[in-house]
From TrEMBL:
It comes from Sutcliffiella cohnii. GO terms for molecular function: acyltransferase activity, transferring groups other than amino-acyl groups. This is GNAT family N-acetyltransferase. Residues 1-146 form the N-acetyltransferase domain. InterPro entries: Acyl_CoA_acyltransferase, GNAT_dom. Keywords: Transferase. The keyword Transmembrane helix does not apply.
Length: 146
């Protein structure tokens, strides 16, 4: 399995995988095509975007990490906005392998931290904890409806 930067030619395949993962349990998102394209373009078309994909041994796209690189007083940080693995290979160590390879890429780019947000009530929460992520005790992720 190998990691690479998302190529323009892989966009539709990545989008299809995103829909398959997040339209099913536990998320049940109800994306409309136009809104999804706007959202994904927001993630991948910025100067500070870092969009990584993961392929299996047959070069099939099986995962993606879409996020941004920011400069901070401690150095560069990567904020993962979306991380997803094909439902066909979840719970087989693929996501952990992908994260390990992401770590190698980030180390080479001298990126010091990875940030992400998830819900405590979904399996992803325990997956991230198992892979070395920890909750920030004195930080909060806040939302205000407008």
């Amino acid at each position: 399995m190998k990691i690479s930067n998302l190529k323009v030619s892989e966009y539709e395949e990545m989008k299809k995988l995103f829909l398959d993962v997040f339209s099913n349990e536990p998320w049940y998102d109800k994306w409309e095509n136009e809104q999804l394209d706007l959202y994904l373009k927001d993630l991948i078309d910025n100067n500070n975007s870092l969009s990584l994909v993961f392929h299996d041994e047959n070069n099939k796209l099986i995962g993606a990490s879409l996020g941004y690189v920011f400069n901070w007083w401690q150095g560069k940080e990567y904020f993962i906005k979306e991380f997803f693995i094909s439902r066909e290979v979840q719970n087989q160590g693929v996501g952990s392998s992908f994260l390990a390879q992401i770590n190698e890429v980030l180390t080479a780019k001298e990126i010091k931290h990875i940030w992400l947000a998830t819900e405590r009530t979904v399996p992803a929460f325990h997956f991230y904890q198992k892979n070395g992520f920890s909750e920030m005790e004195d930080s909060a992720f806040l939302l205000k409806k407008v």
